[in-house]
Hints:
The structure is a homodimer.
Chain A: H1 15-34, E1 38-39, E2 45-47, H2 48-51, H3 56-61, E3 65-67, E4 78-82, H4 87-96, E5 105-114, E6 126-135, H5 140-157, E7 163-168, H6 169-179, H7 186-193, H8 196-210, H9 215-226, H10 228-249, H11 257-268, E8 278-280, E9 294-299, E10 308-312, H12 318-321, E11 327-333, H13 334-344, E12 358-362, H14 368-380, E13 385-387, H15 394-403, E14 408-412, H16 414-419, E15 421-426, E16 431-436, H17 437-451
Parallel strand pairs in A: 1-5, 7-8, 12-13, 12-14
Antiparallel strand pairs in A: 2-4, 3-4, 5-6, 6-11, 7-9, 9-10, 10-11, 14-15, 15-16
Helix pairs in contact in A: 1-5, 5-11, 6-9, 7-8, 8-9, 9-10, 10-11, 14-17
Amino acid sequence: xxxxxxxxxxxxxxxxxxRRREHVxxxxxxxxxxxxxxxxxxxxxxNLETLMGKYGEEGNQLIFKILKRGEHEASGQAxxxxxxxxxxxxxxxxxxxxxxLPRLFKRYQIQPVWRADRPARGRFREFYQCDVDSxxxxxxxxxxxxxxxxxxxxxxxxxxxxxxxxNHRQLLTEILDAAGVPAELHGSALVALDKLDKxxxxxxxxxxxxxGISAAAIEALTEVFTGxxxxxxxxxxxxxxxxxxxxxxxxxxxxxxxxxxxxxxxxLTENTPxxxxxxxxxxxxxxxxxxxxxxxxxxVPDLAGSLxxxxxxxxxxxxxxxxxxxxxxxxxxxxxxxxxxxxxxMFPPNLTTTAADxxxxxxxxxxxxxxxxxxxxxxxAGLRVLVYPDADKIGKxxxxxxxxxxxxxxxxxxxxxxxxxxxxKNLTAQTQATYDQAAAGGAILEGLRQxx
Amino acid sequence: xxxxxxxxxxxxxxxxxxRRREHVxxxxxxxxxxxxxxxxxxxxxxNLETLMGKYGEEGNQLIFKILKRGEHEASGQAxxxxxxxxxxxxxxxxxxxxxxLPRLFKRYQIQPVWRADRPARGRFREFYQCDVDSxxxxxxxxxxxxxxxxxxxxxxxxxxxxxxxxNHRQLLTEILDAAGVPAELHGSALVALDKLDKxxxxxxxxxxxxxGISAAAIEALTEVFTGxxxxxxxxxxxxxxxxxxxxxxxxxxxxxxxxxxxxxxxxLTENTPxxxxxxxxxxxxxxxxxxxxxxxxxxVPDLAGSLxxxxxxxxxxxxxxxxxxxxxxxxxxxxxxxxxxxxxxMFPPNLTTTAADxxxxxxxxxxxxxxxxxxxxxxxAGLRVLVYPDADKIGKxxxxxxxxxxxxxxxxxxxxxxxxxxxxKNLTAQTQATYDQAAAGGAILEGLRQxx
Lengths: 452, 452
C-alpha cells in the first residue's frame, strides 16, 4: 500500500474548497475583463535557463527542478523547472509572440506556481497567483488603472477595509541619498526597511546601525518614516505627504520625477473606486529586485503580510527580447485572500455546497431505466440530479440524500411510472407532492428559489 | 538573452486559445454538474512512489521526475513527480479522505497532466484531461449515467456524429477463451487487437500468428470481429450482436455476466441522449491494464484515435486503501476535442475575440482623469473597457482600436468634458453620436447587441 497524503506542502481541493476558489477566481476574472485585460496561460514547466537568475540567489534555491529523461536521467541533471511566478513567463511570452500581440498588451493570468519553501501556516509549495499586467506604455494611466482594477476586485470580493500603499523605487533611492546613506549601503538599508511592519522603527534603526549606517542618516530616515513627514501624511493625506517628501529629498525646491509620477497616479485615481484606498507610504520597499518605478502593496489589518503587490518593471522583458518593453503589474495572492475571507465569513451563503439539487430514487431496481429518463427531464430543466444507483430500500435511499444535504428526492414507484408522474419529497419542509414527470423540474426549481 | 520558446512539447495559450479552451471546459463542466458530479482538484506534483508502478513499464518511463532539493540535489535523485493522469490521484484522494467523502462519490476533474512523450501533431507533453468518475457502486446505472453524461457533453459541444463504443474486459477474456487462445497469450492477443483500427483484420491476424496464436483461433476471432457476429451487429443492433457473442462464448446457451452487464447498460440508456450513439464493439480493447468491467471509447470519423475513453476499475483504489472500492470513469481529451472543433469550425461565432468592447480616447492627456472616471461608468454598465494610456493624436488612438477589432471608441474632448457628455464612434458602422456620460454605456451595449 502506498501513502495517501498529498506531497509535502501541497493540497488536495475537495468540492467545497473548489467552490470557494472558483468564486474568488470568478470575481477577479470578471473585474479584470472589464478593465480590458485578456486571459493568458503558460505551461507549468519552463526550460530551467528561463527561470535561473531571475529571482535572486534565494529564489534559485526554491525552484523545483525536473530531471532529464531517458538515458540522461542517470546523469542526475535537470533541464526543466516548475513555474516560480507568472511574471517571468509573461516576459518570455511577450518576447516570443511580440508580432502577434497588441502593442499595448494587457493580460491576466490565474495559475499555480511552485516554490520549495518550508511549508508553514498559509504558506504552501503549490499556490495560485492572480496576476494582471500591462505592457507597452510608460504612462501613469497604467498604474492608475491597475490600482483601480485591484481595488474593484477586492471590493467586489467584499473587502472594504483594505489599503493600497503606493511608493516609488526611485524615490526610495532619493530618500536614502538625502538622508546621507552611501549608495553601497542602499541595499542593506532597504532590507532593514522591508521589516518595518514586523520590527517597528526601533528594530529597523538597530539593524541599520548594525549594517553600518550612520546615526545621523538613521535619524533623518526616522523623520521621514515616522516623524513629521509621516504626520503630514496622516493629517494632510497623500498629496501633503508627497510634498513633505519632495521637500526632504530636494532642498532646492524642485520636485523629482518620482514624486511627480506618484502625484499623477493619485490625480488619475481621484474619481475612481481606488480613491479612499490608495495611500502613499514612503517606507514601502517590496522585495523583488526587478522593479524600476511605482510599487504598490494591498493590505488588510487582520493579515500579517500582504494580499498582493506589484509595481513597474521596465527592464525584465529586455532580458528576453534584447530591447526593453515597459511593463507594470500586480499579483493578488489567492491563498491569502481565501484565508482572510474564510476567517471573516465572507463567502456568499448561496455558494453551491451540495452534490445535487435532487436525487432520484426508485422502489424497484428494475425500474431504473425510468429513473434515467426522468433524470433527463429534470436535467433539461436545469437541475443538478443524482440518480441513486443501487437496489436499496427506499428509506435508505432517502436517508442518503438527507445525509448529503440534497434538498429534494424524486421517487418513482409502479404507480408513478404507470401514471407518468413522479413524487417529489422536500426534505427540508418535510412535504411531498406528485407531479406530471414533465412538470416536476419546474416545481423543484420553484422550491429551490423559495429556500433562497 | 534567454530563449523565448516554451519548453519542448509545451504550449503558451494566447487570449484567443484560452477563449476556445474555456468555452469547451465550460460546456463539459456544466453538463457534468447536471449529472451530479462535483469538482475536485489535486496538486500537479505527487510523491514519486504514488505514481510509480501504476501505469506499466512504458508509463514509468514517461513520468517527469523532480529532483530533490537543497543538500540532496547533488544526489541526482528524484522524490516527486508530475501528475501523469487524473485517475491515480483520484484513487489516492478517495483513500485519504474516505470519511469526509460521500459513500457514492461522483467527481469531475479538469486539469493538465504531463508525459515525457515524443511530441507529435496533436501530442503534447502538457495536456488537459476532463475526467468524470463515480466511486462506491457496482451498479450498471453508473456506466449508463457516465455514457449519457459524455454523450450530452459532446452533443452540447456540437458533435452529432460520434459513436460511444462499449465492450467488457471480462467478455474479451471469454471471447479469447472460446476462440481457443491459451490464457498465457491473452495479453499478446489484446495488444494485437488494440491495433484493429489502424492495421485492419489482416494486420491483426498476421500479428497474432507471429505471436504464436493458432490459425484456428485466429479464424474464430475473425468471425467475431468481422464476420457473422459483426454483421449481426450492423443489421440487428447491439442487442442482436450481444446475443451472437453470447452464443459464441457459451455454447451451453447460458448468458455470461459480462453480456448481461452490457445488455443492462443498453437498456438503461434506451431513453436517454446516449441512445443512438452507444454501440457494442466486441473488438474494443483499451490500453490501460487496470480496467475490470465495462470499457468504452468515444470516436468521430475524422479523427484517428479517440476523443476519450474509460471504463470500470474496481481494484485501483484498493492499492491505496487496502480495501476495494468499486469505480468507473471516463476521460475526455481536451486537446483532441479542440483539434476537431477547430478543423470543423465548431466554435460559436460570438466567442470573445477582442480585447475590449470599447476604447476610451482623450484629445488632451491632461484630461486622462476624466477618461478613467468615464471608463468607470462604462464598466459599471458591464462593458469591457480599454483606456488608451498614451498622449498620442486622436487619429492614432482610433486607428489602434480599429487594428484590435474593438468595435467602439468613446472620445473625450474639452467640449464633452464641459458638457458632461462623451462622443461614441461606432467603428464598424462608421457612425458617431454624443451621449450624456451616464447614458453612453447603455447605448454602446445596445450597439453591441445589434452587431450580434
